[in-house]
Amino acid sequence: MRIDKDLVAASATPLVLGILADGDLYGYAILKRVGELSGGRMQWTDGMLYPLLHRLERLGHVSSSWGTSEAGRRRKHYAITATGRATLAERRAQWDVVADALRQVWESAPRPATVVEVWA
């Protein structure tokens, strides 16, 4: 299933902040975690993640520092800041309202008929 880019864009900030709320990570580990959390259905790219991380850093929501991996490679680690935690709480409250409204619409609306393909 392909997830619409508007939905990915809207969910990217709270998803990254939520992941970082569990602990500091480097970029590749964040990409991997998104894949794990979505059961492999969301596959972000470097080109999508790093501009987001840089924007979140400019806004003061995350900080970064250089570290060295067990293999000796230098990696930039990202951590959520106090401002980022406040933003995450605000975004979560917003998503709760949206998710509740969608749930109500979907529970009250009749389900569309499933199209069944018949082979002759």
From TrEMBL:
<dbReference type="GO" id="GO:0003677">
    <property type="term" value="F:DNA binding"/>
</dbReference>
<dbReference type="InterPro" id="IPR036388">
    <property type="entry name" value="WH-like_DNA-bd_sf"/>
</dbReference>
<feature type="domain" description="Transcription regulator PadR N-terminal">
    <location>
        <begin position="16"/>
        <end position="90"/>
    </location>
</feature>
<dbReference type="InterPro" id="IPR005149">
    <property type="entry name" value="Tscrpt_reg_PadR_N"/>
</dbReference>
<keyword id="KW-0238">DNA-binding</keyword>
<dbReference type="Pfam" id="PF03551">
    <property type="entry name" value="PadR"/>
</dbReference>
<dbReference type="InterPro" id="IPR036390">
    <property type="entry name" value="WH_DNA-bd_sf"/>
</dbReference>
<dbReference type="InterPro" id="IPR052509">
    <property type="entry name" value="Metal_resp_DNA-bind_regulator"/>
</dbReference>
<protein>
    <submittedName>
        <fullName>DNA-binding PadR family transcriptional regulator</fullName>
    </submittedName>
</protein>
